[in-house]
Amino acid sequence: MQNQNKPRRILISGILLGLGIGGFFDGIVLHQILQWHHMLTSAGYPANTVENLELNTLADGFFHAMTYFFTCLGIYGLWRSRQISVGDHASRLLFGAILVGWGLFNLVEGFINHHILTIHHVRSGPNEVLWDIGFLAWGALMLIGGLFLIKYVPSATLPD
To answer: Does the pTM exceed 0.70?
Structure first.
């Protein structure tokens, strides 16, 4: 692989890692620790019966399997690019790409699941729309921050 392709590989790997990390954070913190929602809690399957909780747990498991897949792809991409140097800016490029991926996760998952399909909300009940908008704002800030970091990696290391 040519040296000029490494930044592209780092960007793609970082975005995949960001998608995975964002999904894991959402699933572990919001689904399991805080128990604010599960995948289908607003789609007619509130977690108020054992049957609905089992269905939501299964849906959460498929969600986690997807985030695990993204994370493994990102790690594999980084492993494949390990021997080609892009200089001192690889860490900033990778961290920026991870923020882009995490921000994209929040924006896509937030718009689709919270607003379009309404299969769940960040936190159901009073002010659920504000929680959903906050989730989108957090995603937008991560996306913008990641793009900012990537932009200021010297142009010689960025892909064409």
So the answer is: yes
